[in-house]
User: Which sequence fits this backbone?
């Protein structure tokens, strides 16, 4: 029996990405900047309150940023940072696995 | 504004993988079958109760299986199934991203 020392960075990444809806939010933003309502409409089961929380967490983690356009009315868009865009291989790997191994009823 | 229809399989995969500790448990098992205590020792912050729950979920999802060896005392090992082993690219992608983008204090 030998303890397996896990990389704290790996743990931190999974704690961030592992939160409910986070993967989906990032995936939507992979297609480009979106407004709050666009993302909310893409994930109908998620409440707006939850989306606000996730945005705050992902912004704090440096994965996404808010762009504010001083139009009338003001336009606010959420976009991935470089750190966020770098998650594409993760999203692609999850997608590939899901397509091959998760059955079509979405069984977990 | 156009809703982005998200693949339910992708959602289901993230709901499974996104649970706390699940990524770490799978990563430990990537190195080969392990006994309960080995995994518990590898992730000291996780309670045994939580590990039992995760094992049940991952077994139900077909990601891992229990191997029971009729020795004295009985030996029980947990091992990834083919579906579980197929998660290696996901684990590798998360690891690569974490090493590049998560700072060394494990900031999220």
Assistant:
């Amino acid at each position: 029996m030998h303890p397996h020392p896990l990389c704290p960075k790996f743990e931190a990444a999974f704690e961030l990405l592992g939160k409910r809806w986070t993967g989906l939010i990032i995936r939507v933003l992979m297609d480009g900047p979106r407004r709050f309502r666009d993302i909310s409409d893409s994930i109908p089961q998620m409440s707006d309150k939850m989306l606000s929380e996730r945005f705050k967490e992902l912004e704090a983690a440096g994965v996404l940023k808010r762009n504010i356009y001083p139009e009338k009315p003001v336009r606010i868009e959420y976009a991935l940072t470089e750190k966020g865009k770098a998650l594409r291989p993760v999203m692609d790997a999850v997608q590939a696995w899901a397509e091959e191994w998760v059955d079509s009823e979405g069984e977990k």
Observations:
- The mean pLDDT of chain B is 87.
- The first strand of chain B starts at residue 64 and ends at 69.
- Chain B touches chain A through 56 residues (CB under 8 Å).
